[in-house]
Each structure stands twice: as structure tokens, then as C-alpha cells.
Write a structure and sequence with these properties.
single chain, about 550 residues, alpha+beta, Butyryl-CoA Dehydrogenase, subunit A, domain 2, Butyryl-CoA Dehydrogenase, subunit A, domain 3, 8-stranded mixed β-sheet, two-stranded antiparallel sheet, 19 helices, binds flavin-adenine dinucleotide
């Protein structure tokens, strides 16, 4: 009997040893999404130090097991379109997993939607951007409706009587997902409908028609939009052709009398990423719409919205970078190969440090752009001129860096990074979207060219900013000289090259002024001095990897 028990014990032991889990990192839960020196320093520098406590609280919440689970579930259980009810009536509703609503409730409650427009404190827009940088580390998808709600307000203000009704509800902190008469709700969300089948970049080709009704300022729309994200929003800013040309309209889902406006959601897009969010094709047919801004000035009106969503694209790319860098840092600290922890191996340190530089530069630029937006909104014309060009520059470059960055961070986890459970594939799939919507790469690069041509004050403001770092680094000085020549000579075909140099010069100037010398030096040596390969992880021997890593990943990297 004793020998049978002994045999069983040894068999159980052998069985378990075949599946001993070793050398796998523990889950990165909970973590503090606000533990980021570049973020906190930028927040203070750009005038929102008062928000630090709230950002730190939100950072802990973003990294909590609960919030990370919401993000995972909201992406696994994708939104579903219900076009009709059981009796055949059109309902055009999109159903979301409860986790989506949890994420939205926190985002709106923490002021990441329209709240800064109702907050008189200088730095309110910076605080929101910083909030996005931490809370966005949960799920990127729900950043879409919060961003559009934030961005709709300056455009809506072009029609003060509409803004008077809706702005207080768009700037509130209550998430109220039910479809009801907008003015009777506790809080509202806004979306945008510009893109049509025949053209998204060139919206002047829009064919959706707007016909005036007998009531001044009220029209009916007929047409089909090819992309309209977050279709469960309460209000949409929509472009359509009115008698005097392309114009901007406010389209509510529910009309003031409680009836549903015609907003037929034909289908939802089956997307590469951004899965928690719904992106739809709505059809308008006799849809009631209110004119926003003058007839014929639709682009001029809606560009106010696009300026804000472009800033958010920069912020969201920086968020994805930080999120995946933290995950990569965590993995390599806990994983060994060839007898040593990965984080202690020189080539892995080079990869991580290179990613850390990129992330630092992206976060620092996001907050600088948010600071410019904040001061511009409060009447600072120099900052408005800087914002005009620098936001397009940042949108072009930071979002372009996202896919390469997230791919490299994913690779730090080896095969684990390619597996959905790690979360890295989700972040990777999200990255290209940020350079597509709100003006794809070429469109933003050409927008910078347009600013140079038509608004010379914006170039002056950019060069004034760059001059603040002059003399601090020879490579930066040389880049500045090159940039001045290129600005004068560049043709349309060279726009990407020019805008890339602008972005790198701007990022370098910010790091030279505000980051530790080791960070600024490594950035200037590689991104401006050419002492760099084509992949991440090619910093030169002179780079001080330890200092760069100690700043970005202080917990033992
Ligand atoms: C997931 C998702 C959600 C979206 N949500 C919305 C939404 O809510 N509302 C909305 O209105 N739109 C939305 N869009 C649409 C998005 O804004 C457009 O896809 C984008 O603006 C590009 O337009 P397009 O797809 O028509 O491409 P096109 O305009 O056909 O452009 C194709 C390519 O040509 C380039 N290009 C264009 N013009 C030039 C030029 N003059 N010179 C050189 N290159 C040029 C572009 O950069 C792009 O790379 C969404 C898109 C996606 C993918």
C-alpha cells in the first residue's frame, strides 16, 4: 500500500514538472499609468500642475485590473448593429458590451470629453490631454467619441443659438447613453460625418444634398456617408451640399418632438483594429439638420473640429507608445535568455532606450501642442499661429511612428507579443488608424505646405519656438539651418521630407530645453545627426542608455 502511494506521489510530481511555468513575467496588473516623468513634467510645464493629483489617481485607475479587463472585454465583444426591431420597425441601434459603457462613464466623468471648454482654469485643455495619455492606456476605441465630443464644441460655437442649447450638455461630466431628446438628457456625445464613398480627404466632392425648409436654418439631408464612427452619439456635425455650397450641419439622432431622425445605419465596418468602437455607414433621407456656420463655409467650420481631433491623434499615438513601452519594459525585466535577464543585455537595452526616446518625444510634443491649444483658446495669437502649423506637423509624424514603434515593442515580448492575450496585437492594430483618419499622412503634410503658403505667421511662430533652443546643440542648429533652406525650396512632392524634418527639429528642441542632457543628446545624435540605423535599437555607442532608461522605466530597467 505504501509503495502504491509513493508511486502515485511520484507520478503526480512528474506530471506537474512537465508543466512548471518558469521564466514568464507576472501580469502587469495593477500598474500606474501616470508614472511617466515626461508626462508629469509636461503637465506642469504647460500650465496644468494643478491637475497632477487627479492625473495620478486616473493613472492608477487606468492600470487597475478592473479597467484593463473592461478594455479587453470591450474589444473582444464587439458592438453589434440592430437595424430593425422584431416587428420590422427601423431602430438603427448599436449594442455595446457593458465594459464599453464603464470605460465611457469614467472617460466622460474625468473630463476627457467636452469638459475643458467649460473650465475657466488655464491649462484645462492640457489636463485633458494628460488624462487621455493615461486613461487611453486602457482602450483606444472609446477615445473616438470622447475626442469628437471635445472637438465638436469650437465648430458648434459658430452657431451660437445651437451652442447655447447643446454646449452645456456636451461639456458636462455625465455619461448618458440612452437615445432621447438631446436637450432632455444629462449629457451628450457628438460625432462627425464627412467622408463619403467617392472621397474622404477631398470632402468638396461630397454629394449629400441639403435642402432648405421653410424654417430658417433648418434643412433636410439626403445622401450616404461612408464612415461615421460612434453612431450611437446624440449629435453629428455633417457636411452636405447646400444651395451656396458645402456646409456644416448639426444632425441629432432624436428630434425635439421625441421622434427618431432618419439615420439609417446600413452596416458597421469590419475593421483592422479599433474594435471596441463602432464605425458605420449612415444614410440620410429627409434627415432634419440645422445649419452650423454660414452656408458654403462647411470646411472652414468643421476644420475647427478637425484641429482638435488631430491633437488627439498625436496624443493617442503617444499613449500607444507609452503603453507598449511599459509592457515591453516589464517583460524584459522578468524574462531571461542565454543566462541573463533580457533587460541586462546590451542590445535589448539599446532597443528599449531607442523606444523610450521616441515615446518621450511624442509625449512631450503632445503636451506642448495641448498647451498651445489651451493658450490659443484663451486668446494668445502667437500660440494660435504655432498651433496652426505644429498640430499638422505632429499629426503627420507622431502617428507615422506609431506602427513601427508598436511592432518593435511587441517584438520585445518575442512570441508572447504576437499572441492576443498579451494585449500587444490590439495596440499594434490600433496604431495605423491614427495616421489615416483626421487627414491621412499626405493630407497633413500638404496642410503644412498650405500653412506655409497662406499663413506665413504660422511658420514664423514655429521658427520662434525653435529659436528658443538655438545654440544648445550643434546638430539641432544644423537641422534648423537645413530646415530654413528646405522651407524656401520644397515642392509638393517633397512635403513629407520637409514635415519630417520640422517634426524632428521641434521634438529635439523640446527635449534640449526640457529633458535631461542624455535624452536630448541621444535624440539629436540619431534623429538629427544621422548617427542611427533604420530600425529601432540602433543608438550609437556614445548614447547613455542607462540614463535614458532610468528616466523612462524607473523600476529597475
Ligand atoms: C476606422 C475609421 C473610422 C473613421 N471614422 C470617420 C468618422 O467618424 N467620420 C468621418 O467623416 N470619417 C471617418 N473616417 C474616414 C477617414 O477620415 C478617411 O478614411 C480619411 O480621411 C481618408 O479618406 P479616404 O478614405 O476617402 O481616402 P482618400 O481621400 O481617397 O485618400 C487615399 C490616399 O490618398 C492620399 N491623398 C489624398 N489626397 C492626396 C493628394 N492631394 N496628394 C497626395 N496624396 C493624397 C491620402 O493621404 C490617402 O493616403 C474613418 C476612417 C476609419 C478607417
Amino acid at each position: 500500500m505504501a509503495s502504491i502511494l509513493a508511486h502515485e506521489r511520484s507520478t503526480t510530481h512528474e506530471r506537474s514538472t512537465t508543466h512548471d511555468v518558469t521564466n514568464q513575467p507576472p501580469p502587469l496588473v495593477p500598474y500606474d499609468a501616470s508614472e511617466d516623468t515626461a508626462l508629469i513634467e509636461g503637465l506642469r510645464r504647460e500650465g496644468a500642475g494643478w491637475a497632477e493629483e487627479g492625473i495620478r489617481r486616473l493613472g492608477l485607475r487606468a492600470g487597475s485590473a478592473q479597467a484593463q479587463e473592461w478594455a479587453e472585454l470591450a474589444n473582444r465583444h464587439e458592438p453589434e448593429l440592430r437595424t430593425h426591431d422584431r416587428y420590422g420597425n427601423r431602430v438603427d441601434e448599436v449594442e455595446f458590451h457593458p465594459s464599453w459603457h464603464h470605460l465611457m462613464r469614467v472617460a466622460v466623468g474625468e473630463g476627457l470629453a467636452g469638459a475643458p471648454w467649460a473650465d475657466g482654469r488655464p491649462g484645462a485643455h492640457v489636463a485633458r490631454t494628460a488624462g487621455g495619455l493615461v486613461w487611453g492606456q486602457t482602450d483606444a476605441g472609446h477615445g473616438c467619441p470622447t475626442s469628437m465630443t471635445y472637438a465638436a464644441i469650437p465648430a458648434l460655437r459658430r452657431q451660437p443659438e445651437l451652442a447655447k442649447v447643446y454646449e452645456p450638455l456636451l461639456t458636462g461630466r455625465e455619461y448618458d447613453p440612452e437615445l432621447r431628446v438631446p436637450s432632455e438628457k444629462r449629457g451628450l456625445l457628438a460625432g462627425m460625418g464627412m467622408t463619403e464613398k467617392q472621397g474622404g480627404s477631398d470632402v468638396r466632392t461630397n454629394t449629400t444634398a441639403a435642402t432648405p425648409t421653410a424654417e430658417p436654418g433648418v434643412y433636410t439631408l439626403r445622401g450616404h456617408k461612408w464612415f461615421t464612427s460612434a453612431p450611437m452619439c446624440d449629435l453629428f456635425l455633417v457636411l452636405a451640399q447646400a444651395p451656396d455650397g458645402l456646409s456644416c450641419f448639426l444632425v441629432p439622432r432624436v428630434l425635439p418632438d421625441g421622434s427618431r431622425n432618419t439615420f439609417r445605419i446600413q452596416r458597421l465596418k469590419d475593421k483592422l483594429g479599433n474594435r471596441s468602437n463602432a464605425s458605420s455607414e449612415p444614410e440620410f433621407d429627409g434627415t432634419v439638420a440645422w445649419l452650423v456656420g454660414p452656408e458654403g463655409q462647411g470646411v472652414k467650420t468643421i476644420i475647427e473640429m478637425v484641429n482638435c481631433t488631430r491633437l488627439d491623434c498625436v496624443m493617442m499615438s503617444a499613449t500607444l507608445m507609452r503603453r507598449t513601452l511599459v509592457e515591453a519594459g516589464h517583460h524584459v525585466r522578468h524574462r531571461s535568455a542565454f543566462g541573463a535577464r533580457l533587460v541586462d543585455q546590451p542590445l535589448m537595452r539599446n532597443v528599449l532606450a531607442d523606444l523610450a526616446l521616441e515615446s518621450d518625444a511624442a509625449t512631450t510634443l503632445s503636451l506642448r501642442l495641448a498647451g498651445a491649444a489651451d493658450r490659443a483658446v484663451r486668446g494668445d495669437t502667437d500660440e494660435a499661429a504655432f498651433r496652426r502649423i505644429a498640430t499638422a506637423v505632429g499629426k503627420y509624424w507622431v502617428t507615422k511612428r506609431g506602427p513601427a514603434f508598436t511592432a518593435e515593442a511587441l517584438e520585445c515580448l518575442g512570441g508572447n507579443g504576437y499572441v492576443e492575450e498579451s494585449g500587444m496585437p490590439r495596440h499594434y492594430r490600433e496604431a495605423p488608424l491614427l495616421s489615416i483618419w483626421e487627414g491621412s499622412g499626405n493630407v497633413n503634410a500638404l496642410d503644412v505646405m498650405r500653412a506655409l503658403r497662406r499663413e506665413p505667421g504660422s511658420a514664423q511662430a514655429l521658427f520662434a519656438e525653435l529659436a528658443l533652443a538655438q545654440g544648445a546643440d550643434a546638430r539641432l542648429d544644423a537641422a534648423l539651418t537645413r530646415l530654413k533652406v528646405q522651407v524656401a525650396q520644397t515642392s509638393e512632392a517633397g512635403a513629407r521630407r520637409l514635415v519630417e524634418l520640422m517634426a524632428l527639429t521641434l521634438q529635439a528642441s523640446l527635449l534640449v530645453r526640457h529633458a535631461p542632457p542624455a535624452v536630448a543628446d541621444a535624440f539629436c545624435a540619431t534623429r538629427l545627426g544621422g548617427d542611427w540605423g533604420h530600425a529601432f535599437g540602433t543608438l550609437p555607442d556614445t548614447a547613455d542608455l542607462d540614463t535614458v532608461l532610468a528616466r523612462a522605466l524607473p523600476d529597475g530597467a
